[in-house]
Design a protein that fits this description.
Layout: H1 5-9, E1 12-17, E2 24-29, E3 35-40, E4 44-49, E5 54-60, E6 67-71, E7 77-81, E8 89-93, E9 98-103, E10 110-115, E11 121-126, E12 130-135, E13 138-146, E14 151-155, E15 161-166, E16 170-175, E17 185-188, E18 197-202, E19 208-213, E20 218-222, E21 228-232, E22 245-247, E23 253-257, E24 262-267, E25 273-278, E26 285-290, E27 296-301, E28 306-310
Antiparallel strand pairs: 1-28, 2-3, 3-4, 4-5, 6-7, 7-8, 8-9, 10-11, 11-12, 12-13, 14-15, 15-16, 16-17, 18-19, 19-20, 20-21, 22-23, 23-24, 24-25, 26-27, 27-28
Keywords: Nucleus, Repeat, Transcription, Transcription regulation, Transcription termination, WD repeat
WD repeats: 17-58, 103-138, 235-276
Subcellular location: Nucleus
């Protein structure tokens, strides 16, 4: 089934999970869409089965905390940042709950973490004003970039380039093979004093870049020219919360939650709002992602619950 305006308007909450005692700070779908893993400020990692619609397993990272959780290319391993003790990134085997490797280097909180879509490379951005490149097979940083401001960063869908949003006013594009030579493109945007950039994502077709903020506005850029194609607003975020925005897998729509528990959906090409959905959340929707394979998406709020929305109330996946 293809996503259309009417299909998106038909999504309803199918499952609500309340496994956590503190807010969910991140989650990630596996590449096959069969599982989703969440990280929470209660130091837990909860693995959910998307096909059966139930939690599978809960693990804990009590000593170091857990944030920005990301699946690697193996469905049973993840990397995540720490929010206690230090700012080391950790590589965990879900199978036996053992650390495979540590990635030390950042000396302030990690705010961006992105796995390459094609290999074992990943990048991280931190409040220490650096971006680091890593390889899962080595604890040593493979590349280090000192920047003029706080970065957000992400790989493109082919894993050949990565983008860095710096100081909430410019986007720089780097070739992964020659990043040390500097960016091959720089897009300077009008600075908005009312908010900061909190996330950067490419669309799956590689043509668009989505910039999310801690304010009430999103921007879509042309990934080749840097032109601002659309600015989206009209959703509630009066308290400066970091709200995750996402593309649908077909790159046709943009979604974000809001502090009143509603989910706003726009057409990425026309810029028109096409849906306003009730996520059944009582707090701000801080995490929102569409399943890469199934007609399902998940949202999570500061009130410790995850909602799974799809077209059919009876089934988690179709």
């Amino acid at each position: 089934m293809k996503l259309t305006d009417n299909v998106l308007r038909s999504f309803r909450v199918a499952k609500v999970f309340r496994e956590n005692s503190d807010k969910i700070n991140c989650f990630d779908f596996s590449s096959n869409g069969e599982t989703i893993i969440s990280s929470s400020d209660d130091d837990s990692l909860v693995l959910y089965d998307c096909q059966e619609g139930k939690p599978k397993r809960t693990l804990y990272s009590k000593k170091y905390g857990v944030d920005l959780i990301r699946y690697t290319h193996a469905a049973n391993t993840v990397v995540y940042s720490s929010n206690k003790i230090d700012d080391t990134i950790r590589y965990l085997s879900l199978h036996d709950n053992k650390y495979i490797r540590y990635f030390p280097g950042h000396n302030k909180r990690v705010t961006s973490l992105s796995m390459s879509p094609v290999d074992d490379t990943f990048i991280s951005g931190s409040l220490d004003k650096t971006i680091r490149l890593w390889d899962l097979r080595s604890p040593n940083c493979q590349g280090l970039m000192h920047l003029q401001g706080k970065p957000v960063c992400s790989f493109d869908p082919e894993g050949l380039i990565f983008a860095a949003g710096i100081n909430s006013e410019m986007v720089k594009l780097y070739d992964l093979r020659s990043f040390d030579k500097g960016p091959f493109a720089t897009f300077k945007l009008q600075y908005d004093r009312t908010c900061e950039w909190t996330g950067l994502k490419f669309s799956n077709d590689g043509k668009l870049i989505l910039l999310s903020t801690n304010g009430g506005a999103l921007r879509i850029l042309d990934a080749f020219k840097g032109a601002v194609l659309h600015s989206f607003g009209g959703y509630n975020n009066s308290k400066g919360v970091t709200l995750e925005a996402s593309f649908t897998p077909d790159s046709q729509f943009v979604m974000i939650g809001s502090e009143d528990g509603k989910i706003h959906v726009w057409n990425a090409e026309s810029g028109m709002k096409v849906a306003l959905l009730d996520g059944k959340h009582t707090g701000p929707i801080t995490c929102l992602q569409f399943n890469p394979k199934f007609m399902t998406f998940a949202s999570a709020c500061s009130n410790m619950c995850v909602s799974i929305l799809n077209l059919m109330i009876q089934h988690i996946c179709i």
